[in-house]
Design goal:
Elements: H1 2-17, H2 25-38, H3 40-55, H4 65-87, H5 92-96, E1 99-101, H6 103-112, E2 116-120, H7 127-136, E3 141-144, H8 150-162, E4 166-169, H9 173-182, E5 186-190, E6 200-205, E7 208-213, H10 215-223, E8 226-235, E9 238-243, H11 255-276
Parallel strand pairs: 1-9, 2-5, 2-8, 3-4, 3-5
Antiparallel strand pairs: 6-7, 8-9
Helix pairs in contact: 2-4, 3-4, 10-11
Length: 296
Amino acid sequence: MKKLQWAVELGAVLALSLPLLFLPLKAGEYLGLAAHALWGSRRNIAIENVRQAIASGSLPSTLRPEDVVRGFFRHLGRSILELVKISCGFGSRITSTAEIRGAEHYHQAKAAGRGVIFLTGHCGNWELVAILSSVHLEPFSVVARRQNNPYINRLVELVRGKFGNAVIYKKGALKNIMLSLKQNGAIGILMDQAVTPEEGYIIDFLGRPAWTMKVPALIGRKTGAAILPSFIHREGNCHIVTIHAPVVLSGGIDNEQAIMQDTKRLTVFVEDYIRAHPEQWLWIHRRWKRAGKEQI
């Protein structure tokens, strides 16, 4: 019975995706607006998240939460349409017009021979970072959660593998991450989701306490791998990937305190991105859950 359910779900995904191939990218924005109108629960989470970020002074008071969230849904719809087209071989224009800024930081880090950690978040069309890296630089491994539906999970694996990228699943990920870095590989980690107390620290994020992943700082200190904050944003019809210089980690004697300070420092890069591109971050996520009275 379960296999039948998985097959039906996969069929639904394919049936919904194939017609999208014939739509112009602009149509994705209208699909996003439809989701904005219909997906009231997530729309309300997003509006409240933006409202509290403005109230804390983390975002300009001139922004209207409703406008930011509407812009986010437009961006999300277009992003999904882009990924469908790229996955089916119709996205060469998207990948060829993208620009990589700061590629020299990546090449210098690779030359050091201790591996590279691409630190990013749910920013811009984040799934494109690995794809564009494989096209313009070289493939890398992405740390991700396994999909509940194994048929859909296999489909996602095939799409990522099409561009030479590999997936390291979160369960038991540490061993594979360390092995890849030991071989001077590159790993992509999204650090802007809420984690459990065992996985991180409570750190202020956009003016509110949030459980924040410590894995990038921990692994960076253990392996000496370069941590390169790397983010993608949309400029008109093009995508820009910006690779920052390696983050210099703390030199504290107390390892736990040093990891916490490094995690705070890495978090600032995500916050700076959101301030620069407020409509291109995943506001619908419950980022502040389990962190005390301020969770929503």
